[in-house]
Automatic annotation (TrEMBL):
UniProt xrefs under SUPFAM superfamilies: Insert subdomain of RNA polymerase alpha subunit, RBP11-like subunits of RNA polymerase
Protein's name in the database: DNA-directed RNA polymerase RpoA/D/Rpb3-type domain-containing protein
Source organism of the structure: Galdieria partita
Segment forming the signal sequence: none
InterPro entries for the chain: DNA-dir_RNA_pol_insert (IPR011262), DNA-dir_RNA_pol_RpoA/D/Rpb3 (IPR011263), RBP11-like (IPR036603), RNAP_Rpo3/Rpb3/RPAC1 (IPR022842), RNApol_insert_sf (IPR036643), Rpo3/RPB3_RNA_Pol_subunit (IPR050518)
GO biological process, one term: transcription by RNA polymerase II
One GO MF term: protein dimerization activity
Cellular component aspect of the GO annotation: RNA polymerase II, core complex
Length: 326
């Protein structure tokens, strides 16, 4: 029977670019839509066009261009940019749909590492909007937005290493796009979900049925899904099991079923099958282009827009059909 309760979201852990959350009272199709839209349809800014003026490094132009494309750019104001293909102000690219970066580095010492810190946003002086797009230099886990002030900014993402006399000089144009065009626009490093265990037992009944020895034997064969609570001496599920990270091994399920058959005669009283999960444990990590919260917000908006468009189309199709009938 369909679950009529309103879906809800509970955030367990949140940093700037990571979030663990639970979505309750929905089904697999919705959970998967959230995962797929977050990966492929949330827009960000990324370098899409390179004018290579000088490249005497050991890297080919294409390799360097590819690396530049993968540098995440801060995109919290991405909604204010146009997609270049839809831009009403230009035929190529302009300040409404792109941001320009210059990179000019020459090695005069023994060796020099070129990083994302060497990318200079030359559009920044034109508008605050353009200035909001900057390379993401940091990596790792942070509890707040990384910056020079709080000491969380790192040394930048390595792009190339130059030997004495080598030089790279180029102009890079960043444009708005989504992950389904190219992975460089995806704001997400990883997003995955797990559901409640597929098979589990009602431990309240098992605890009354089994002897201490039988309980210990079950714990042994449960692959760390079960434990015995030292205070109450009762069987309990381990957290990893209740979070859906591990499941009961088949041997353990068989053993439990036999034990229950001996004691109760009907294993269905304690066996619980979960073929229709309605609770989803998500783990999300972003590239830093958007905060984890922004990724989720954009994801829900994209899904909502699609459904609104579908609904409007349905309405007009129904109306057309009625007009032809009468
Ligand atoms: Zn434009």
């Amino acid at each position: 029977m369909p679950n009529a309760r309103t879906p809800s979201i509970h955030i367990n852990r949140q940093t700037f670019n990571e979030m663990d959350f639970i979505i309750k009272d929905t089904d697999t199709s919705v959970a998967n839509a959230i995962r797929r839209v977050a990966i492929a349809e949330v827009p960000t800014m990324a370098i899409d066009l390179i004018h290579m003026q000088v490249n005497t490094s050991s890297l080919h132009d294409e390799v360097l261009a590819h690396r530049l494309g993968l540098v995440p750019l801060t995109s919290h104001r991405v909604d204010e940019f146009e997609y270049t293909r839809d831009c009403p102000y230009c035929s190529d690219h302009c300040s409404h749909c792109s941001v320009t970066f210059d990179l000019d580095v020459q090695c005069t010492e023994e060796a020099l590492t070129v990083t994302s810190q060497d990318l200079v946003n030359t559009s920044a002086l034109e508008s605050q909007l353009a200035a909001s797009v900057q390379p993401v230099h940091f990596s790792g886990e942070y509890n707040s937005t990384p910056s020079e002030e709080n000491g969380l900014a790192s040394n930048g993402i390595v792009l190339a290493k130059l030997a004495k006399g080598q030089r790279i000089r180029l102009t890079a144009i960043a444009k708005k796009g989504v992950g389904k065009e190219h992975a460089k626009w995806s704001p997400v490093c990883t997003i995955s979900y797990k559901t409640d265990p597929t098979v589990q037992f009602d431990l309240n009944i098992l605890n009354t049925l089994l002897s201490d020895e039988a309980k210990r034997a079950l714990v042994k064969s449960s692959d760390e899904c079960l434990a015995i609570d030292p205070k109450s001496n009762q069987l309990v599920y381990e957290t990893a099991f209740t979070l859906g990270r591990i499941s009961l091994p088949l041997d353990c399920v068989k053993k439990m079923t036999l034990l229950v058959l001996e004691g109760l005669g009907d294993p269905t009283q304690v066996l619980e099958y979960n073929n229709d999960p309605h609770q989803f444990y998500f783990s999300l990590e972003t590239t830093g282009a958007l905060s984890s919260e922004d990724v989720l917000r954009h994801t829900f908006r994209v899904i909502q827009t699609k459904l609104n468009q579908l609904s409007a189309h349905l309405q007009s199709t129904v109306q057309e059909n009625l007009n032809t009938l009468f």
